[in-house]
Amino acid sequence: MFYHDRRLQRQVTVDKPDPLFARMLQQAIGGVEGEIRVCMQYMFQAYGARGPSNKYRDLLLHTATEELGHIEMLATAVALNLETAPTEAQEQGAKDAIVGAVMGGGESPRHVLEGMLHKQLLSTGMSAHPSDSDGVPFDMSHIYASGNLAADMYCNVAAESTGRVLATRLYNATADAGMKDMLGFLIARDAMHQNQWLAVIEELGGEAGALPIPNSFPEANQTNEHAYQFFSTSVDGSYPAGRYTEGPSIDGKGEFSVFQAQPMGEEPVLGPARPDSGAQNEQIGAKPAQQIP
Amino acid sequence: MFYHDRRLQRQVTVDKPDPLFARMLQQAIGGVEGEIRVCMQYMFQAYGARGPSNKYRDLLLHTATEELGHIEMLATAVALNLETAPTEAQEQGAKDAIVGAVMGGGESPRHVLEGMLHKQLLSTGMSAHPSDSDGVPFDMSHIYASGNLAADMYCNVAAESTGRVLATRLYNATADAGMKDMLGFLIARDAMHQNQWLAVIEELGGEAGALPIPNSFPEANQTNEHAYQFFSTSVDGSYPAGRYTEGPSIDGKGEFSVFQAQPMGEEPVLGPARPDSGAQNEQIGAKPAQQIP
Amino acid sequence: MFYHDRRLQRQVTVDKPDPLFARMLQQAIGGVEGEIRVCMQYMFQAYGARGPSNKYRDLLLHTATEELGHIEMLATAVALNLETAPTEAQEQGAKDAIVGAVMGGGESPRHVLEGMLHKQLLSTGMSAHPSDSDGVPFDMSHIYASGNLAADMYCNVAAESTGRVLATRLYNATADAGMKDMLGFLIARDAMHQNQWLAVIEELGGEAGALPIPNSFPEANQTNEHAYQFFSTSVDGSYPAGRYTEGPSIDGKGEFSVFQAQPMGEEPVLGPARPDSGAQNEQIGAKPAQQIP
Amino acid sequence: MFYHDRRLQRQVTVDKPDPLFARMLQQAIGGVEGEIRVCMQYMFQAYGARGPSNKYRDLLLHTATEELGHIEMLATAVALNLETAPTEAQEQGAKDAIVGAVMGGGESPRHVLEGMLHKQLLSTGMSAHPSDSDGVPFDMSHIYASGNLAADMYCNVAAESTGRVLATRLYNATADAGMKDMLGFLIARDAMHQNQWLAVIEELGGEAGALPIPNSFPEANQTNEHAYQFFSTSVDGSYPAGRYTEGPSIDGKGEFSVFQAQPMGEEPVLGPARPDSGAQNEQIGAKPAQQIP
Amino acid sequence: MFYHDRRLQRQVTVDKPDPLFARMLQQAIGGVEGEIRVCMQYMFQAYGARGPSNKYRDLLLHTATEELGHIEMLATAVALNLETAPTEAQEQGAKDAIVGAVMGGGESPRHVLEGMLHKQLLSTGMSAHPSDSDGVPFDMSHIYASGNLAADMYCNVAAESTGRVLATRLYNATADAGMKDMLGFLIARDAMHQNQWLAVIEELGGEAGALPIPNSFPEANQTNEHAYQFFSTSVDGSYPAGRYTEGPSIDGKGEFSVFQAQPMGEEPVLGPARPDSGAQNEQIGAKPAQQIP
Amino acid sequence: MFYHDRRLQRQVTVDKPDPLFARMLQQAIGGVEGEIRVCMQYMFQAYGARGPSNKYRDLLLHTATEELGHIEMLATAVALNLETAPTEAQEQGAKDAIVGAVMGGGESPRHVLEGMLHKQLLSTGMSAHPSDSDGVPFDMSHIYASGNLAADMYCNVAAESTGRVLATRLYNATADAGMKDMLGFLIARDAMHQNQWLAVIEELGGEAGALPIPNSFPEANQTNEHAYQFFSTSVDGSYPAGRYTEGPSIDGKGEFSVFQAQPMGEEPVLGPARPDSGAQNEQIGAKPAQQIP
């Protein structure tokens, strides 16, 4: 179960509110690279963790709980970027900060701004929502929790890698010192988490021990002659040589080689359509194609 | 650009059609761990590949094109599992293969079966659709193509890991020799692809060279004191010790340690609601909470 | 604007409630081939209809309004299939009608049934919901209203064709006289609507007058040499000859021929990644691929 | 069943077309607070209404039918805001109305405008679509029809409350007299509907009679000692006192009090992974955590 | 920020694992009436809370944090329902508990069961996922946080009402004492939360003080003559009389009456399509409809 | 199975990079009218093609494979529109090309631009993604593959019609010669494909032979008296006369006529709610409506 403290994990300040940056920050909340994703992914991996003992259940709960605080920080940053104190000053502020400087003045810069801040203005009244920077709501199919510990760890490394890439893009897109401080903190935490999940892979025997994932499937059951071949699909037979075309495989269980892709099967022929299946008569009678026209 | 051959990459045979297994196979087509996902993920990573030269663009196109053939194999397998030759025999077949043996007979086993095969029966007329085994359509937000080569490689390892886990579950769920052959082949290819994408990480300098991703972000800009700390969020201060709580970090750039999570910020106080923002009067006047009741 | 009558467009009766059929009927309500789709598609086409006069706005409103009554009929049919009069009799009814006969008896057939009727039992309390037979909610991106009258008509023919295919599958899946009557009526209406939308194409000049859609785009602006060629992508150069490979084109504006697909462009080379774009260093420096390993 | 009149429920005029406002209006059509939602929600609640008699079925049909006319009004308003009469004048109009005044002139303000009006320009050819102001299509999972009359009424109050909040935000965002007239009408109707659905709650016995919803569940079956306690999850045990922490409960069936949240359960320990479940070997053997590294 | 305790808020036990019930429980996790929804809804309402002071921010955080623990309990219950200790016993267990008793025996009841447990078997390896009982992933557009405190409270009452309805349906669908205990606890908490959010409405002045929501919109700006009228859309002018057709309105600001719906506007006529808009020529030239055929 | 060539089907050049046009091009990639849709639709229709022989399976594979190359061309165009060579020049370029010319200068036009390019900047690092121009990911429910050949052909005509409409809108929205060349090519291919799929209808007997779809459903089973009637739903009995209100039907199997819509059924009365269904007591007891207040 969980507890909360009204205070934030780290202070969030915005020196100069910037509504467009508020919208960009949404990607780090509700984007597929964002914090809801890692928070919920670690939660659900924890809830389904089976053996060894409960060590990894607990580990995952620690970081899931931390990430929940990151959602809170980012949502607070969105709300702060959307506001200034008095109303008239705000319109002036908006003009200065964003539109005026850019657009060369005019009667109503606020109107264009409104045209770019749909959900924030119309749906939330100047605060964050669990959607990405395009207003697309986060969808929980992105919570990867496979029941395989090693697969989940790579899913987590992937999430923290795209997450840190996104955070550095946001860092580069703002000049606000408060925002740079917050993002620099989140970027550091993503660095830790990349290392952390790979450390679990190391505990599980490293790439040689963990791969191929799942390592519980008997290798005799897979088509071993194709298990370490790079398939070239190029019409001219060329391929980009690399670490993956020769030498020992990363998991240490095979030798890389190259195989020119070609049909090893026949053209499939399905049976005719069933009479009650809503097909056209021609599909049911299976009149040969050459007789059709 | 692309070419096709009417023949399959590998022969697909079904010894005994099994409509329920057809539905399970859908997860490998349109599930988030499935083949549409890896095919399109590699395609879009290729289309956006920037430096070094076009090597990785081509590499990604090779494997994307291979995966396209895997979608075709699986879709063919679904169609074959949904059919038997003559209609009457088919109903008998269905009774024998699935329902009869299980359900102890009865007048109309086909009716229950129909109740479990919605999209296949009602929408596709006995063939595959690009949805998962629950009938949820695949959604392209699962195509991870971040513009960062290393992040993308870990996304690909994650995809091939959950993909191989899924394929082994399907392998274990069928007794059909034809299906076991097809799945054993796909399982082998997933093993190769796990190795292949990690081989690219090795080319990029391995974990020490590639991490933290993106490696182009100046480390001075992140909050370095927190970049290698495990944050414990446990109320009692406990934590599960492991490779990630002490020793050198995986990227070789820091030393793991433990930090007891605590608020480093204050409780955030947002400004009152704007008068024209559709809030309640109480939120605009900002009457102190203690005066509300 | 709209009016309603509490009575149905056509009587809906269910002789023997069948919860599994209720679930199948959902496809005709909230499936992409279903009635919400055609109702809303015609509504939105009407709302955006521009010239000639308001004739087609009104035509579309007529049929949209009719379809609204079809949603009502189907939703009523779902509710009736989920109920029987007294509770105890109902459990008996369920046992008789569906599970008992099929599954050979047992202590609690209702439990398996419940396991197959999620949304109906858990979310709606025994009535219809705007989702398909797999419980996937209808999503309004399927409302095609392109602003081009001829394109919209073909979208409507497509919708009524898949809709009638679905309705005949449902007709074939039930033995209930009441349900067959309702579906026979809906199937007749779909026949009319297929004819109706093609009649509008005829009013617009038929295939020769309407195609290529949009007919307002100057033909000189398209790459005319490829406008009537069948592109063969087969590696061996073969192709399935047909009405589309020779003879006058359907729109009467060209002559069909065959073109063997081949690259007419070069391999694209994108610029290196920008330094602030969150890419890996290797992508920014654009070190040649052969130097990478 | 339903009928239509070609005329609108209320005249819709646009004095000065404003494409950006057209985009904002989309939120009231296809947003989760919009008119498709209430229309379809009342329709489906009607279709599944069970006892008392058919009174509430009919009531719901009345208001559902009214809302259908509101979708039509808003869609018409979108189309009118996207047009002006002759093409050249329109470009001039666009420059004047939106971009020119704001952006200080320039060669091609229309281009930026186009960059902000994707679906309207590209997909609908200058008319409305059933999506929100960010272009996210409406998804029917927002149709709440629970089969419980009182729960549905609160869902309806919630929908009309967020709907009126949205409509007032749109009212405040436009200076167009025609648009203010239309929105003032819709805002009035939302006021009525908030009152209307709460009037049904009053008919059902008010808060004391209807709560807790469902009132048909025997109170003896719930854990009554926790049924009127405010759970404090604050680590320091503090909580914000209010009407909900002491005094009689709103439903008149209990007395509010405060409970400091704490674990009343143990740490859950799941069994090891099954051998055939695609887990890693370590999860199957259940090696104790302390032996892993 | 947040903390966690490895123990559960309340003990979760399953006396007799029931995989089908595991699937039904998913609705309470990832259904629109489920715990992810209330947890995240209260979180985001808290993050955007503006005035009065931070009282309601804190209140919302308390209950959001509690709900997070409910997700954990339910996910644990799903995992427990999917397992039994030794593998062979499990297959036996499955046969006994669910399929055998129901289906009258047969060789492979597990196969049918597998056909009904897609995501649990194939995607999560026997644990919970953030999807509903049909496998549809939760989508965050269901997080209602409008920026209006009273509207949000009614959204919360709606969520807790449909949530408690769902929980009682699950309670009635199981005979397992452990599951009944857990659900009885959650049902009690939902009762509290219904009362709690209505208590906030009472603090905000009750229905008379809070309505119409938002109460900050000047009543003079709405079309007051229609603000308390029930609109009858029946073709025959009939309507279901009730508390909402006469007497003082619930908000005490008007008097209910009845208005027979009729067109107060004209048929809208949109301008012809623009020449460059991809319409058909007929729509651009605006040839009168009567001349079309 | 499939092969690839690193070169493009047709050269793609961008004379003057235009990030806003890059965003608009996304609609042709991931919009419902886009190339992913037709590519995957033809693929899945091919995979499920049943009789006549494999002719149409092969035909569909040809065009599906061609469309895959179109996705590649468009994705390359997006990447090229997002880049310019050196960074400083790029910012200058952006200023010149898009914002500067439009907005009259200002300090940071790039900031506004960033506010309009979310996914391209934040998620992909300057390349294409499989989403539409609003950033909404493509969802595979738009892959229509009904199992009925004629229905599928009309779905394909519909897709190519909306696709060509979209492409002409993009053509009209750009002044870039390279982009006009690419779009002119795609527009020509769409013209061919409209003709191609209608040519298959001609092979299947034309409208008279193919309609009503499915032509395998016995006409005696539909309610024939309503199969060729235009239903008028207008309250005043008026209707827009046309080709669809009199004369022979398009399929040659009936005669069009007009029918004034009216209730042919009664008001449906559902049974009371079940006691264990989570309804309110009033719904279970079925107290008559008139006794409720």
Automatic annotation (TrEMBL), chains A, B, C, D, E, F:
SUPFAM superfamilies: Ferritin-like. Belongs to the manganese catalase family. Its cofactor is Mn(2+); Ca(2+). Pfam families: Mn_catalase. GO terms for molecular function: metal ion binding. Binds 2 manganese ions per subunit. Binds 1 Ca(2+) ion per subunit. The lineage of its organism: Bacteria, Pseudomonadati, Pseudomonadota, Alphaproteobacteria, Sphingomonadales. This is Mn-containing catalase. The keyword tRNA processing does not apply. It comes from Sphingomonas xinjiangensis. Residues 242-293 are annotated as: Disordered. Ca(2+) binds at D58, S234. It comes from the Bacteria. Keywords: Calcium, Manganese, Metal-binding. Mn(2+) binds at E35, E67, H70, E160, H193. CDD domains: Mn_catalase.
